[in-house]
Structure of DNA alkylation repair enzyme:
Amino acid sequence: MAEPLKHFYNKELIESLSHQLKSAYTSFDSERFQEEIFSDNWDLKELKARITHITEVMHRFLPNNYAESIEILKQVSTYYTGFYYIFFPEYVARYGLDDFDTSILALEHFTQYSTAEYAVRPFIKKHKERMISQMELWAESKNPHVRRVASEGCRPRLPWAEALHEFKKNPTPIFKILEKLLNDDSESVRQSVANNLNDISKDHPELLINYTKIWMGKSRNTDIILKHACRTLLKQGNPEILRQYGYAPPNHIRVENITLQEQIKIGEHLNLEFKLTTLEKSLGRLRIEYGIDFLRQNGKSWRKIFKISYSSCPNTITFSKQHSFKVISTRKYYLGLHTIAIIVNGQELASRHFMLL
């Protein structure tokens, strides 16, 4: 079993951080800093709580002058690269909201070593217009990490962060930023743009549908972004977006020879096999998925969609798929009657029940 992520913040890291802070700021009390980090129920703190705690303790041992503290942290941050070091931009979010100019330069610096995607959000809420303008500038940066935060930071539904409710209601300002990144040569930037657009689609599907119609075919990179951005609408079987990607209604298709265990145990695999046939010359361009209606603790069910194949097919084709019911940390299984559905081009064509024991 993988070690919890919170254990990344261990004695060795804090000793290293303390040493670098002392080198950059000679008045820094490294011994007391380490003592305070590991006091206050450290072992009980989870990942986010540890990040917050490190940030708050750093603040107590740095100069009272915010700009001076930022210069120290900017110097120290260059020794640390990766997501886990978000306590540097977190410092800006907690203590720099009233010093916009200093903070923006700090966030631009820190995101090149960690990520400022969470730290920019309090600034968006307090300084919306200034931040939109700033993120448009960041979208033109030569540094891909800075360009990425221009998109990732304004996502309406960024995971692990408080939603930007104003952008959930009206995402129009975001499009000015994203349009600068639609043909970006960085995969991480393109991924962020796609995720941002996918967020928008959950509240305003019509905006992404229209956006796709306008931008589809402009470039290969743009098409990759749009296809990934439309993933929720495609899984939902949205007819407009399915048509946009060439998936016609599957009225001519039959599902035959379905085989499936009647019951399986947790830890085993569910084996699904079926055949698609048509009387026409070909099945056509198909998006083939299956959905499982998982039981909740209250006895109700929820459906999750899984990919099988996206391709053009002849007039008959057989598919087989294994689905694991191995215990994983992100999903809890409940025993009882489940349903599996075969979905073609957004429409459920057949379903079967099985018992999870």
